[in-house]
Amino acid sequence: MRALNKKVYPAGWQVATVGFFLFYMLVPIISTYVFSVATRWDRTILPEGYTLEFYKRAFEASYFTTTLRNSLVLSLATVLVSLLIIVPTVYWVHTRLGRAKPLLDILMILPFGIPTVVLALALVQVYNFAPLARSPFLLIGAVVVYSMPFMYRPVSNAIQAIDVHVLTEAGQSLGANVFQVLAKIIIPNILPGLLSGSLLVFATVFAEYTLTSLIVGARFKTFPLLLVEFTRINGNVAAAFSVISFTIAWLVSLLILWVGSKGQTEKVESIQAR
To answer: pTM of the full predicted structure?
Structure first.
């Protein structure tokens, strides 16, 4: 009994590893936040003074509202299109085309091996006709391909974690068709995977620069393009833009999680009421 009740503490190297990882991840973020409010920070260890002037200049910058809106529209549209493509495809492969799963896994790895510059130039050359030529629609298609692995893996893992065949057969035995089974049975059971994929895709697309710059450029200016533009003008204002971008992505992520948790809570209450 004493052996069972004995507390197990992490080893020293484990604590050191976690501490080093946290230090490695947090220092750049904290430094960016501090630099965005520093009056001067090149002669001493700490800034010589602090000011919010750079945030004022960031909010007053031309195209601030437009680029922020474009980035949000691009990110949310990519999440929606990714869900509409990935979820039915993964469900169909797991239930009807099991032999195609290895091929699908390989296809989902390819975007990691294709440089974004090559992807952008190829799409621009192939889709050089109206209304797709250098349009936001072509950009959405490009970022969907680029971010597809981030949506595929959480959704695939979530579907593998449930008995999709039993749930499908149970739904069909009650008279539901394939679309009803997917919408009312499968999706509620894989909601955590959908939320994880949506967060990854949103964060990836919101900060995407290369595809946007090469495909649409100033025609559909996004927040990262404005940030990069100010890196050549004023580093402190660019740091302020980085902080604003990170904060917005963080708030939207919390909103997505809140909506998902609220949906799960309502589902549990509905089941308990029955």
So the answer is: 0.82
